[in-house]
Amino acid sequence: MNSEKLIVIDMGVFNEWIRLGVIYPLAEKVKGTNSLVWYKRIQEMNTWGREEIRAWQEEKLQRIVHQAYEHTVYWKRVFDERGLKPEDIRTAEDLKKLPIITKADIRAHFDEIVADNAAQFPHREAKTGGTTGEPMRYLVDENVWGYETADKIVAWKTTGYRYGDSFMALGSASIFKKNAPLTRRIFDKIRNEHPYNSMNLDGDLCRKYIDILANQDMHYVYGYASAIYLLAKYALDHKIDMSHMQGAFTTSENLTAVYRETIEKAFGCRVMDCYGSRDAAITAYEITPGSYYLGYGAMMEVVDEFEPGKGTLISTNLLNMAFPLLRYNYGDVAELDNNSTAYNGQVLHQIYGRTSDVLRLDNGHVLTAPGFTILMRNFPVKAYDIQKLSGSSVRMQVVIADGWTKEDEKALIKEMERFCGEGCKFTLEYVEKFEGGKNGKKRYFMNNLAD
């Protein structure tokens, strides 16, 4: 009697193998990128000890420092003015011998920061989003792109996600571009990304997107934290079963406790917050709750501390040979941990957001922008602006809508006094409208709830 063996194929594993093992390498050859090389390297490095990681980073640091000194006008001048040579910068501690570089410095000295041998390193020109002012132009080495792309794949896979699993991307131009280059659109197709605009996410749009998640076999969603929160809240409010969801990846905004709790309750899945900055070569993923594992491609510092380990983040890009950026202040505030026992690299435990989104008061209270988006939707307010007048004085200006009452005023003042804490003077003012900034955008804590 003949025996037959039943071969069972896991289609998720097979799909990932086809996309990541066959199609992706062909696309990389066409584009000239190296993210698959980094994909294998990062997985290997994740098994290394802390000393091995530090040695690898210091080797890359010495390489980028020599590149900066020998091939850029700007950094050679900086080193010479301080009587330094590349050999003087070997470790993270040595970096403190150098000044901090800001976006204003980069705008003013762009041509001097471009390496004279940049043509040897495949690169592209990029710009920051400009949400906190004038967009900043810079060059990004394809090696940086390769690392960041690979790190994202490795991190997402810790949730059970397999490369090629269909997912919804909720955002705007900062997450996806309708007129993206053909190569970008090809990579989007390979990873099975389906982009949807989350601006003006009303009830009808929430219902549409929830139906798409349910009917098109999508088990993952990626995008703005507030957008995924609104989608989850709609599902809860309308008692829609979303138990088929397997992961939610939030990005671009602070993931507040309310956002997280709502998403977890509605979707019944793991929420991984994703943090990054392309200009600073930063990737960080919340691999364990409350701990964001920083990618190895940058060395981080904290300056202007308001508590130990908490302050303004400074990045040294170890991979961008075309446009060396050492000790770059890219404008974020967070808590940095250099001694985590869970990970062999650096860890962020709390991300407050942009420097302009964080108000630190003398009484120790820290106010961050995203939480107020939730609070203010409970009041008939069209727009609001929160400013720190001093370390113990905060002012909120509001543009009220129809239905505003004295009870709303009392309730808002009570809430704000609670947030500001004892010893802080809070004042509420009424205004007719707010003017946009020079770039046409409002700055935090200014927010237009009608947008």
By CATH reckoning, the class of the largest domain would read: Alpha Beta
CATH architecture of the largest domain: 3-Layer(aba) Sandwich
Structural class: alpha/beta
- The poorly predicted ranges are 436-444, 447-451
SS elements, strand count: 19
Percent range for β-strand residues = 25-35%
CATH superfamily of the largest domain: ANL, N-terminal domain
Percent helix, as a range, is 25-40%
Shape estimate: globular
Which value, in Å, is the CA radius of gyration? Answer: 24 Å
Mean pLDDT: 87
Main sheet overview: 11 strands, mixed
Number of domains: 2
Distance between the termini: 73 Å
CATH topology of the largest domain: Rossmann fold
User: Within the largest sheet, what's the order of strands?
Assistant: 4-3-5-6-7-8-9-13-12-11-10
Number of separate helices: 13
Task: Characterize the structure shown.
- 35% of the residues lie in helices and 26% in strands.
- It is α/β, with parallel strands linked by helices and 451 residues long.
- The chain folds into two domains: 11-355, ANL, N-terminal domain (Rossmann fold), CATH 3.40.50.12780; 361-448, GMP Synthetase, Chain A, domain 3 (2-Layer Sandwich).
- The strands form four sheets. An eleven-stranded mixed beta sheet has the order 4-3-5-6-7-8-9-13-12-11-10. A four-stranded mixed beta sheet has the order 18-17-16-19, covered by helices on one side.
- A hairpin with a 2-residue loop joins strand 16 (381-390) and strand 17.
- Helix 2 (35-45) packs across helix 7 (142-156) and helix 10 (225-237) packs across helix 11 (257-267).
- The longest helix is centred in the first third of the chain and has 22 residues, at 50-71.
- It is globular, with a radius of gyration of 24 Å.
- It starts with 10 loop residues before the first helix and ends with a strand.
